Amino acid sequence: MSSTLSSQALVEELQARSREVDPLVNAICTPNPAALTDAVQLDTERDQGRVRGPLHGVPVLVKDNIDTAGLLTTAGSLALAEQPPPPQDAVLVQRLRAAGCVILGKTNLSEWANFRGSSSSSGWSGYGGLTRNPYALNRSAGGSSSGSGAAVAAGLTDFAIGTETNGSIVCPAALNGIVGLKPTVGLVSQQGIVPIAHSQDTAGPMTRTVRQAAALLNVLTGGGTDYTEHCRGDDLSNVRIGVPRGPLWGYSLGLDQVIEQALETLSRCGATLVDHLSLPTPGGDEDQLQVLAHEMKIDMAAYLATRAPGGPKTLDDLIAFNRDHAEVELKWFGQELFERAAATEGLDSPAYVSARLTALRAGRDGIDDLLRDNQLDALVSPSYSPAWSIDLVNGDNVLGGSSSHAALAGYPLLSVPAGLVSGLPVGITFSGTGRSDATLIRLAHAFETARIKADGPFPTPEFTQWV
């Protein structure tokens, strides 16, 4: 998108682009019919000398589990698609509008942010259908912020909002060859976002560049910190970065080869790499599921109470709706995660308290101990395995990823495109302690700058089948 265009021209350009390519990828589930009117109004404000900020007039797509007044917010489910739009914007959407952003529309997602059934296919929802990867239309766009990732990659916007509980920003960012920033939990307001678990949920930027992600984070956090100040070129002298080989490497040979080259790029930037480290195994799946299931029951009821009377108000209501509409909602996978969450006994239960303590030990203690013991500024690892083939019958086939430790800890992650494996994008992830978002932005921007100097711009998708 050209920065010299008016907001009206930008919106018209992106709407035309959407008509051309979105039928192939299905990233946008609900266009905003007021987008062009809003853009014209923002152009008028600019002409009158009122500029709300650096993103004045910039079109932004918002994941469809984030409340937008006047537009459906469905979390991908027909249960909410049948309800009136939310009565007010989520806090982060209020901030986008206050900063002069144009809400271009809502992006499809993995239904209920991929926490309904264990054999789900990322990018599919009952309301929005299936989102596909622009680099390989028969391969996954990742989850659960599938539409946001695919939209940026497909050129439908430079700026999108995703949400993450465990991997839902950084996974689709890596698979779609874009930048994905999962902030420290609590840095961005959770109000008005359809929840999974308050200890791990956060919204965050999905953009073409690290600088754009930093600019969007400024808005999402309320502007108290200018994260773009940390985009300072590619000099990483006096920076120490840890490389935890275990358990974050070794599941994809092609991915490992790309990230080895990325480590060489970081070294050329002046960074000191402390290699062959390890993080503790991030607990068993059982502990992680206990945390999410217990928090979801409480958090979902609190969210549903904000929606219109007469709609679903509890997980039990949602479960019943899915059974009544099984021909669509339960066609490809079940709702055993919903059912497990509905059977939990509150946040005082011994099962939850024990699982949460285990999660914190593996997440926060594991990351912080490694940083402290080795005097590190951050960690770096492969992001996610290359995009897997879409298989609605059997579900996702994810070989591995880098998000679990930070998810359990509530700590930030930043995935940046690193290269291609057989034509499929893969990323490198920077991680650190809580509130180290600015440090990660500095490191990721330096890597991005150096990689582009060496290899040129990241290849654009061709919207073809991968064979």
Descriptive overview:
Helices cover 38% and strands 16% of the residues. With 467 residues, the protein is an alpha/beta fold. It folds into two domains: 7-239 and 382-455, Alpha-Beta Complex (Amidase signature (AS) enzymes), CATH 3.90.1300.10; 285-353, no CATH class. The strands form three sheets. Strands 1-3-2-8-10-9-14-15-13-11-12 form an eleven-stranded mixed β-sheet, with helices on both faces. It has a two-stranded antiparallel sheet with strand order 4-5. Strand 4 (124-125) and strand 5 (129-130) form a beta hairpin. The longest helix is centred in the C-terminal third of the chain and has 24 residues, at 350-373. Keywords: Hydrolase. This is Amidase. It is an enzyme of class 3 (hydrolase).
Percent helix range: 25-40%
Cα separation of the termini? 30 Å
Name of the CATH class of the largest domain: Alpha Beta
The residue-averaged pLDDT reads 97
Keywords:
single chain; 467 residues; alpha/beta; Amidase signature (AS) enzymes; 2 domains; eleven-stranded mixed beta sheet; two-stranded antiparallel sheet; 16% strand; EC 3.5.1.4; Amidase
Give a quick rundown of the structure:
This protein is of the alpha/beta class. The protein has two domains: 7-239 and 382-455, Amidase signature (AS) domain (Amidase signature (AS) enzymes); 285-353, no CATH class. Helix content is 38%, strand content 16%.
